[in-house]
Design brief:
The structure is a single chain. The chain is α/β, with parallel strands linked by helices. The chain has nine helices and twelve strands.
């Protein structure tokens, strides 16, 4: 009898363990659910830039700041996630489509310009911001007021930048183009007068100019050399999520949070932003 009782006890223990494992499996599934699919949701993974002041920046203390971060946080809240339920993942430009397609992130909010080439691989919500290619010059430099003024002058951008090539091939073919590994090198050269101007999206330029260490040193020329509508990237065919994100963006504009985020992140650069763009994706 003692042997039978021991066997029965062991069987009960195994059954309880299996039940606990099953419950744990269900919980794990909920924890990995990075989107609005109903039921328990422990976190959402969102791709952002980690190295763009004003847009997406990971600070030394591990906290994230920038306009894209504020937009992502607002959208996540509307999808049912609190800030502590957001996991930010670095989304470098060349990897954004892969991160979405592989399911590594639910959304990408990373100065992600909507264009047809990208839309062949992912869907977008938005746009939520309209940037333009512009020039950043020293605050005391009045010699550059249009792109043609860059002829015979030193222009800096990052290696492979379409912005720099746009100026070099279309607007100022005699510009002396200097390519750097990152924008910070261009800023150093601009401050030391080794270069005369830096070019990329005006939102990115405004973010750098707004940093405490750069305040008062630089200014945007105020040119619209291209249109860059930023969208929120998501998995192709996920129309339910696209609709919900679009609704969140519209609400962010309507309640004033969008304008507040623009002023907070770009204001110190005296950045004259475009009004919030009309939602076109998914409509």
């Amino acid at each position: 009898m003692k042997i039978l009782k021991a066997g029965a006890a062991a069987a009960v223990a195994v059954a309880l363990a299996l039940t606990a494992t099953a419950c744990g499996g269900s919980s794990d599934k909920a924890a990995s659910d990075g989107g609005p699919s109903g039921g328990a949701k422990d976190k959402i993974v969102i791709g952002i830039k980690f190295d763009q002041p004003g847009l997406g920046l990971k600070n030394p203390d591990g906290k994230f700041t920038g306009f894209d971060v504020d937009v992502a946080t607002y959208v996540a809240k509307e999808l049912g996630y609190q800030p502590d339920q957001i996991e930010f993942k670095q989304a470098v430009s060349a990897e954004r489509e892969n991160l979405i397609a592989n399911g590594d992130v639910k959304l990408v909010v990373a100065s992600y310009t909507i264009n047809d080439k990208r839309k062949a691989k992912v869907d977008f919500a938005g746009p939520y911001f309209l940037a333009h290619q512009d020039l950043l010059v020293r605050a005391d430099d009045s010699s550059i007021t249009k792109a043609e003024d860059l002829n015979k002058k030193k222009l800096c951008s990052v290696t492979g930048s379409t912005s720099a090539q746009n100026v070099k091939t279309k607007l100022a073919p005699e510009a002396d183009l200097k390519e750097s590994a990152g924008y910070s090198e261009c800023l150093t050269g601009l401050e030391s007068k080794a270069i005369d101007a830096l070019t990329t999206d005006n939102s990115i330029l405004a973010g750098y100019a707004s940093q405490d260490k750069n305040k008062g040193k630089f200014k945007l020329v105020g040119l619209n050399l291209s249109n860059e509508p930023y969208g929120i990237g998501l998995k192709k065919g996920d129309t339910e999520l696209q609709t919900k994100v679009n609704a969140a963006l519209k609400k962010m504009v309507a309640d004033g949070a969008w304008e507040a985020a623009v002023k907070k992140n770009f204001g110190p650069a005296d950045y004259k932003n475009e009004p919030a763009p009309q939602i076109t994706e998914g409509s």
